[in-house]
Amino acid sequence: MKARIFKYLFLCYFVVLSGCATSTENGEKTSALESYNHAMFKFNHAVEKGVIRPVAKGYRVVTNEYVRQRVTNFFDNLEEPVSMANHMLQGEFHESGENFARFVINTTLGGLGLYDVAAKAGLDKNPTGFDKTMATWGVPDGPYVILPILGPSTPRAATGWVADGYSAPAYWVAQGSADDDADLIYLGVSSLKYLNKYAENIKVIESLEEGSVDYYEAMKSAYLQNRAKINAGGKKAVEQAPDYDFDMDDED
Amino acid sequence: MKKICLLILSVLTFANVAVADINKDAAVQMVKNVTKEGIEQIINSNSSVEEKDRVFRKLFTENLDLDFIGKYVLGRYWRTATPAQKKEFIELYKEFNVKTWSKRFDEFKGKEFIFDGTTPANNPNQVFVNTSVPMQEGKPASVKWRVNDVNGKLKIIDIIIENVSLAQTARNEYTSFIAKSPKGVEGLLENLRAKIK
Fold it and tell me: Touching check for B107 and chain A: CB below 8 Å?
């Protein structure tokens, strides 16, 4: 049972790296990656509509916004140490200190992170991860790739996701327990995090789909534009809007 | 000669700054009016769905430069489209957006826009009006409005939510659809017609 989660993570990572390798050689192989992406997007979409969305709708029925916010806060708090370490790796020591303070305050006064007491004291959430750290170090993002179940990603985003998973204290707590099913419990608890997030955004996701003529391209475009701020690596980039000429001769 | 050159340069510089200043302030005011009207008359209003749709349609068509956006989102296919296709596309695009956004009013209930100055665009006739929307928890969501000034008439040509440009996303999506469709632009029109029914 042990290391079951990371077998999956490595499988995802292998898929990403395969995609990366095929994409960099020539146009023909880039098309192969696009074909893979379309096929995986179709698979993910079927799983999303057939399984995840009905489960998320059921989850919304049995929970209210208050409960979902507590779940969000709980998981966000568990990720504070990961953000703390990564802010340090990015040379942002003040932000790292804020993550530490938030973790201590919310774990104690905030009932194990269920309530964001720190935000009320002026310490707002400021999450980061190894993906952003690598961006700060100048590691290229790589091509767009769709991961099984997890959805849109890039090689660097996937690497960051794996590294964040490994470095999460909750993972090491689970590993340290005597329970043989520790991995399975961790996987289940992590699934709740993603289900909660999905349930919170279900209306936006549905309206995005309804408002699209090509859902794959809409998701790809939005994902890559959103990553531009991470790729730029700095706060300045977040404050800037994407600026482009409205030139019809641009490549589409 | 040197003096004349300096005079011309200073006049041009002053003229440029003066125009940019007018655009900036007027653009902020225009976006303020749009958001105020949207929140008061649509989102927080107790009027019927039909009335909300009517007000939204008016607000949407009066303040967004749909001809400009329509041309942009069709990209290189705008040149190959027939005049009839262009005209129908603009109309369908407007209807499709009104229909899509009408369903999302509730998401914005209780929200407010905080204005945070402007950012220059690479085109001197355009400016980004920066706003943010406080969320229940965490950082506020960034919403930037790209406003275009054509002969003193201000129109919104793009909305950028958390770094995602709606115009850019639509352009990628629509041009990809046309490229894949055996019927080209006509295929897109058929799809849009079916969606707004």
Answer: yes
Q: Is residue B180 within 8 angstroms of chain A, CB to CB?
A: yes
**Domain spans, chain B:** 22-196
| 0.90 exceeded by pTM | no
The CATH superfamily of B22-196 is Tgt2/MlaC (3.10.450.710)
A25 falls within a domain: no
Do the beta carbons of residue A217 and residue B173 sit within 8 Å? Answer: yes
Evaluate if residue A243 carries a pLDDT over 70.
no
ipTM, 2 dp = 0.79
**Could you list the residue range(s) of the whole structural domain that residue A209 is in?**
33-236
Note the pLDDT of residue A246: 56
Cα of first residue to Cα of last residue in chain B, in angstroms, is 67
Among candidates B121, B144, B164 on the partner chain, residue whose Cβ is nearest the Cβ of A222? B164
Query: Under an 8 A CB cutoff, do B164 and A248 touch?
Result: no
CB contact residues (below 8 A), chain B span 15-74, against chain A: 68, 71-72
CB contacts, 8 Å: B137 with chain A:
69, 72-73, 116, 119, 125
**H helix runs in chain A, sequence order:** 4-23, 27-47, 53-62, 65-78, 80-89, 93-108, 117-120, 130-137, 155-167, 169-176, 182-200, 202-210, 215-232, 235-239
Distance of CA B76 to the CA centre of its chain: 20
pLDDT per position as a tens digit, A115-130: 999 988 889 888 999 9
pLDDT, tens digit, for every residue of A180-210?
677 777 788 888 989 998 988 888 888 888 8
Please report, rounded to a whole number, the percentage of residues in chain A having pLDDT higher than 70.
78
Is the pLDDT confidence value at A102 over 60? yes
Judge whether A80 lies within some domain.
Answer: yes
